[in-house]
Specification:
Blueprint lengths: L1 H22 L9 E17 L4 E3 L1 E14 L3 E20 L2 E23 L2 E21 L3 H9 L6 E13 L2 E10 L13 E14 L1
Antiparallel strand pairs: 1-3, 1-9, 2-4, 3-4, 4-5, 5-6, 6-7, 7-8, 8-9
Amino acid sequence: MKRSFIITCLLSLPIGMTLSAQDEETDPRELFAFGVKAGINSSNVWDEQGQDFRADNKIGFAGGIFFGIPIGKYLGFQPELLISQKGFQGSGTLLGSPYSFSRTTTYIDVPLQLQVKPGEFLTIVAGPQYSYLMNEKNVYTLGVNSVEQEKEFNNDNIRKNVLGFVAGADINVSHIVVSGRLGWDFQTNNGDGTSSTPRYKNKWIQLTLGFKI
């Protein structure tokens, strides 16, 4: 009888150890994370001004890396480093002539977001964003005096360093992260405030698919 009791205890030990390990497993929300993401921006402009300017949405690339730095179980910090294409398609009149205009701006975006993590599958984020303009591409369709009209746009004093704000949510399914963001600039594109052909601020909706380690 004594020998049977000892054997039973030894056989039960691995099961007890497994259950104990499961109880002590760390919540994923408390772990540091690193990941990559890619997707699209649907961008436009707001606070637009100058030369009867009207703008339509433009699609561009968005992608880069992100980090998840836990501050306890329900809060965290999520910085990201992204390549982000924004811009718009516009039309209007300039010096009495009609025009159409497409602008693609490529930025390095650095959003610094606070995480709120109500559950393992949902992360709500919001915070300021710094953007640096790397490249700008313009396509014009103009009427008469097209050279002078194009010069009007190119003479803009473009702001390269822009502050803005982003907010959104991440859906976490194992290592896959589906992200949605709304973003808008606080500062206009004209650096010293003297230009108005056209003056505007960026706004965008961003959808990305990521992989988290």
